[in-house]
Design a protein that fits this description.
The chain has 7 helices and 17 strands. 22% of the residues lie in helices and 28% in strands. It is α+β, with helices and mostly antiparallel strands and 287 residues long. It has one domain: Double-stranded beta-helix (4-Layer Sandwich). Strands 1, 2, 3, 4, 5, 6, 7, 15 and 17 form a 9-stranded mixed β-sheet that branches. Strands 14-8-16 form a 3-stranded antiparallel β-sheet. A 3-stranded antiparallel β-sheet has the order 10-9-13. Bound molecules: succinic acid.
C-alpha cells in the first residue's frame, strides 16, 4: 500500500526505517488531519523526525497527549517543573550517557510503552547521534525454521538488573547518579511473546532487547543467552538501521514495538540535553 500525504512531506532517510516529516510547526498548531498523516507516516516508517521545532515543555506535553496517555518514567530525572518529561542529560564533564546500549524503552512493563517523543534542547556541535533499527526487518532476516521456534516462545523482561540496586553494584553507574534514580522502584517484571504481531501494522516483529530481556520462559539464562545474542546481532545489521543527526529543535518519535535504538556516546566534553515523553501502549500479542 502506498500512503498518500497531502498535509505533510515525508522523506525517508533509509529504505527500511526512518523518515523526516516536513511542513509541520507544532508551535503554530497541528490540526487533526495533519496529525493523522503524521501518525500514518509513523506506522509506515517506525521512527519519524521533525526538525526546527521551537516548543515549550507545555507544548511538548500537549502534543504528546494527542498520541496517548503519558507514561511517566520512574528512573530518569524529570524536568523539575514538568514531571511528565524525563531528562536525557549528559554534562560536559560526565562520561556515561543514558541509552548507549541498543534497547527498546519500557519492555519491562507488562503493558509496554507504545513509543517515545524525544526533543533536542541542547546538542553537541557534532556527535550524539541516535541509531535506530527495524525489528520488522530483524524478523524478516531470520530463517523459516528459527521463526517457527521463536513464534512459540515468550521472554522475561525486567527493570531490576538495569535500574535496581544490582545495576549500581555490578557496574560503574556512579557517573549516572543524579540522572537515574529510584532504585527501590525497579521492581517490574514482564513476559512478552518473542515475536509480536505489531498492534498498528499487524506485521510480525522481533521483541527482545539487550537492556531488559532476561531469558526465554522455560529456558535457563545460560541456554537463552547465545540465542538472544544472535537475535541482537540480527537486529543490528547495518542495512536495517538508520542514523539521525540531531540539531537543536529536532524531534524524534519512535515506535518501541517496531524499533530498537541506541544513543551514541561520542561527544565527551560537550553538553547534550534531550526531553523525552513516553506514551502508553497496549499488551502485546504473539503471531
Ligand atoms: C533514549 O534511549 O531514550 C535516549 C536516546 C537519545 O538520547 O538519543
Amino acid at each position: 500500500m502506498v500512503n498518500q500525504y497531502n498535509k505533510i512531506t515525508v522523506t525517508p532517510i533509509s529504505p527500511v526505517l526512518g523518515a523526516e516529516i516536513g511542513g509541520v510547526d507544532i508551535n503554530a498548531g497541528v490540526d487533526d488531519e495533519q496529525l493523522a498523516e503524521i501518525k500514518q507516516a509513523f506506522v509506515e516508517w517506525s521512527v519519524i523526525f521533525i526538525r526546527d521545532q521551537e516548543i515549550t515543555p507545555d507544548q511538548h506535553i500537549e502534543f504528546a497527549e494527542r498520541w496517548g496517555q503519558i507514561n511517566v518514567n520512574r528512573f530518569f530525572q524529570a524536568v523539575e517543573t514538568h514531571p511528565q518529561i524525563a531528562e536525557v542529560r549528559k554534562e560536559a564533564d560526565q562520561k556515561k550517557n543514558i541509552g548507549s546500549m541498543w534497547h527498546t524503552d519500557h519492555s519491562y512493563d507488562q503493558i509496554p510503552a507504545m513509543g517515545s517523543i524525544l526533543y533536542a534542547r541542547e546538542v553537541p556541535d557534532v556527535g550524539g547521534d541516535t541509531l535506530f533499527s527495524s525489528m520488522y526487518a530483524a524478523y524478516d532476516s531470520l530463517s523459516d525454521g528459527l521463526r517457527q521456534i521463536l513464534g512459540g516462545l515468550h521472554a522475561e523482561h525486567s527493570s531490576r538488573h538495569a535500574f535496581g540496586e544490582v545495576a549500581y553494584v555490578d557496574t560503574d553507574m556512579d557517573d549516572l547518579g543524579g540522572r537515574l534514580g529510584n532504585i527501590d522502584k525497579a521492581t517490574q517484571d514482564a513476559i512478552h511473546p518473542v515475536i509480536i504481531r505489531h498492534p498498528l501494522s499487524a506485521r510480525p516483529a522481533l521483541y527482545v532487547n539487550g537492556d531488559f530481556t532476561v531469558k526465554f520462559v522455560g529456558w535457563t539464562k545460560q541456554e537463552s543467552q547465545p540465542l538472544l545474542d544472535y537475535l541482537y546481532q540480527q537486529a543490528r545489521q547495518n542495512e536495517i538501521t538508520c542514523r539521525f543527526r540531531w540539531r537543536k529543535g529536532s524531534m524524534a518519535i519512535w515506535d518501541n514495538r517496531a524499533t530498537h535504538h541506541c544513543a551514541l556516546n561520542d561527544y565527551h566534553g560537550q553538553f547534550r540535553l534531550m526531553h523525552r515523553i513516553t506514551i502508553e501502549g497496549v499488551a502485546l500479542e504473539g503471531i
